[in-house]
């Protein structure tokens, strides 16, 4: 018989913290879903009025704003910038697809 050592009990504090992390992760997913609903509308509007999918000026301003918010919140501003860049790249990809669909 293959016997494994019993797993150590999870301390209640760890279970509580993990539960909070799970709740935060769920909130992040919901927030991202709402954000992308808005950016889809932006993409359709941009395509309708002939604006390009990307807006480098706005992106620069948003990066600066997010870095300030990160610093105020004691979050690594480089991480915050990378996170925003990841989201913006996906938004631009969506906007390009929307624009192509409007052209057809």
Q: How would you spell out the order of helices and strands? A: HHH
**Into which percent range does the helicity of residues fall?**
over 70%
Strands, count: 0
Oligomer: single chain
> DSSP strand (E) fraction?
under 5%
Q: What is the residue-averaged pLDDT?
A: 94
- Biggest sheet statistics: none
Q: Rg from C-alpha positions? A: 21 Å
Q: What does this protein look like?
A:
- With 104 residues, this protein is mostly helical.
- The chain is built from three helices and no strands.
- Helix 1 (12-49) runs parallel beside helix 3 (77-103) and helix 2 runs antiparallel to helix 3 (77-103).
- The N and C termini lie far apart (66 Å).
Quick structural summary:
By secondary structure, the protein is mainly alpha-helical. Helix content is 79%, strand content 0%. The protein has three helices and no strands.
Write the layout of secondary structure elements.
Blueprint: H1 12-49, H2 56-72, H3 77-103
Helix pairs in contact: 1-3, 2-3
List keywords for this structure.
104 residues, mainly alpha, 79% helix, elongated
């Amino acid at each position: 018989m293959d016997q494994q050592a019993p797993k150590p009990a999870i301390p209640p504090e760890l279970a509580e913290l993990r539960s909070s992390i799970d709740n935060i992760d769920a909130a992040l997913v919901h927030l991202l879903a709402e954000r992308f609903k808005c950016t889809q509308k932006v993409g359709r509007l941009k395509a309708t009025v002939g604006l390009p999918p990307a807006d480098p000026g706005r992106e620069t301003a948003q990066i600066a704003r997010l870095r300030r918010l990160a610093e105020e919140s004691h979050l690594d501003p480089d991480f915050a910038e990378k996170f925003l860049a990841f989201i913006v790249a996906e938004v631009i990809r969506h906007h390009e697809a929307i624009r192509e669909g409007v052209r057809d």
